[in-house]
Design a protein that fits this description.
It is built from twelve helices and 15 strands. By secondary structure, it is α/β, with parallel strands linked by helices.
Length: 444
């Protein structure tokens, strides 16, 4: 049950990989150069990575590639060039991500790197792409350090430079951006006691540290448990929570992929959460309602953070991409559909603006000053070499960081409910059902 979604995704992927490319050039309206612009696209297609998400991410790359090429590709000096995305399997492991990046650069000759999912992989890849001057646009990883200016990140190597060009950008939010919304919501509910269960990765550890700090400043007690990706049995941890004198007010999961589905289902089966006493925050992957209900049939009333544009705010491009996603996989397109799609489109757009796919400095300059709309909204970068002085109090991660990713707190309140119908409970500006939380057993 937990993994059947993976096999259905693979089957759907095989069909849809053929669909966009067949007939795209049949009308002959595009004349392309022999050279091809190559992007390296990161996706966790094998365990212990989030394989279900990886299949979807790869599908998103192919959709963007097809849409770009159907519009005659990227025009450089009056010549049209096809775009090709070479998807590399990171397996969710930093060393594997490094190896993929090296192969792309040294063997395949990629001109840019896009997408991603796991923070550990992004931190490993960015050291390689920075060294080789490959424009890189992450869409998925959350670790603050990916865009923090002046940091020493992976293996002691500083990807940021004092004099020179920084080639790394991000359109997914930083951990601190997501943590701030979750913390604000929990504080507004008046909770006093929280449990965090976090994966032992470059996503889980800093996300837990950031949320803990925010909650403790507000006087909320925090207890944390660490887990490894790929873990299937969480009963020992959950039993420890059950043996507490008083149940926690909330359990926040900072765990990705199939591991998170296992954890939420076991938590629900044992009666740990969601209950009248304890809020279940299942994590952002729960926004894929088709996967969620297949793997977590007892997860009704779980809360999840939706990163990216909410269905109520979908524009025409988002609606079209969501329609394709629904036909391929069912459910509502999550952020890890739209983010990688937009990363391909945005990088191609920057090359078009730069009038080059081989001049990395020109492409970076175009990205820094870009102003364009794709599926998740208007893309621009407030801080970079074009505007290098971050005002006092501005987080360092805002360097080459898209400042406007939407983060909302949502909640299921009916078994098998689509994410399109789930309630947005926070922030108030996006609230859809007149409440900031739905107590299990009730309706809004």
């Amino acid at each position: 049950m937990r993994f059947k979604i993976f096999f259905s995704m693979v089957c759907a992927l095989l069909m849809f990989m053929l669909w966009p490319t067949s007939g795209v050039y049949a009308d002959g309206h595009c004349e392309f150069a022999d050279e091809v612009i190559k992007f390296g696209g990161i996706a966790p297609l094998s365990a212990p990575g989030a394989t279900g998400a990886g299949v979807v991410i790869d599908w998103s790359y192919q959709q963007a590639e097809a849409d770009i090429n159907a519009a005659c590709g990227v025009e450089i000096n009056g010549v049209n060039y096809r775009v090709e995305v070479l998807t590399g399997d990171s397996e969710g492991i930093s060393e594997r991500g490094q190896a993929v990046a090296e192969r792309w650069i040294l063997d395949d000759g990629v001109h840019a790197v896009v997408g991603g999912y796991h923070s550990a992989v992004a931190l490993a890849v960015m050291s390689i792409t920075q060294e080789h001057r490959i424009p890189t646009l992450f869409a998925g990883p959350w670790n603050d350090n990916i865009t923090a200016n002046g940091i020493i990140a992976y293996e002691g190597r500083p990807p940021r430079v004092e004099d020179g060009v920084d080639y790394v950008f991000r359109i997914s939010p930083a951990n601190a951006m997501v943590g701030a919304i979750i913390a604000e919501w929990l504080i507004s509910l008046g909770i006093e006691d929280a449990v965090l269960i976090a994966e032992n990765t470059d996503y889980g550890r800093p996300a837990a540290a950031d949320l803990t700090e925010r909650l403790e400043v507000a006087g909320i007690e925090v207890e944390q448990y660490d887990v490894e990706l790929g873990t299937e049995d969480f009963v020992p941890i959950l039993n420890r929570i059950l043996l507490r004198a008083n149940p926690p007010d909330v359990i926040r999961l900072l765990v990705t992929g199939e591991t998170s589905f296992n954890l939420v289902q076991q938590m629900a089966e044992l009666g740990v959460a969601p209950t009248e006493d304890t809020i279940c925050i299942a994590g952002y992957i729960a926004v894929d309602s088709e996967q969620f209900w297949d793997n977590v049939p007892d997860g009704n009333y779980c809360v999840f953070d939706r990163v990216g544009i909410t269905p109520a705010l979908f524009g025409e491009l988002a609606k079209e991409l969501n329609l394709r996603y629904g036909e391929a996989f069912g459910g509502v397109a999550p952020s890890f559909v739209m983010e990688p799609y937009d990363s391909v489109r945005l990088m191609a757009h920057a090359m078009d603006l730069a009038d080059s796919y081989t001049d990395p400095d020109a492409i970076v300059a175009a990205l820094e000053t870009v102003d364009v709309n794709f599926s998740q909204g208007r893309y621009y970068f407030e801080f970079g070499s074009h505007n290098p002085d971050l005002p006092e109090g501005t987080p360092a991660f805002m360097w080459h960081q898209w400042p406007d990713p939407i983060v909302a707190v949502m909640q299921y309140f009916e078994q098998g409910q689509s994410a399109l119908e789930a309630a947005v409970v926070y922030p108030p500006v996006y609230e859809t059902h007149g409440t900031s939380y739905i107590v299990p057993g009730t309706s809004p």
